[in-house]
């Protein structure tokens, strides 16, 4: 059993701990966790956007953010380090529930009462089917 308290969200905390321990050797984890108690900030995407999403401000204005209540079941994948070779997202988590709430996980909003229970496994390989476009 591991108890973590800090300013990072649950997944970022795990990923940063892996980075501290393994340095620039990438370690991938995937798994499921449950937010047993508390609430979390999640977003859902609206219908297709009618303007280009070129900046984080435009993206955040388009997304719809909500505080959603536990219990939430979350599926997560993360990698501790990417030197830019693969251009992969370091972490990504989606949640669902049996009470009709869910979306993309950002962080918990009730740090004094939140409780997580997670099960993760190490990735043996990373496959990338499409290289992301290079920034110009």
Automatic annotation (TrEMBL):
InterPro entries assigned to the protein according to its UniProt record, in alphabetical order: C11orf54_DUF1907
Keywords: Hydrolase, Metal-binding, Nucleus, Zinc
DUF1907 domain residues: 2-129
Protein's UniProt keywords contain Secreted: no
Pfam name, any one: DUF1907
GO function terms (MF aspect): hydrolase activity, acting on ester bonds; zinc ion binding
Compartments in which it is found: Nucleus
Entry GO CC: nucleus
Entry keyword annotation includes Flavoprotein: no
PANTHER family: ESTER HYDROLASE C11ORF54, PTD012 PROTEIN
Quaternary structure and interacting proteins, as annotated: Monomer.
Name of protein: Ester hydrolase
Organism: Oopsacas minuta
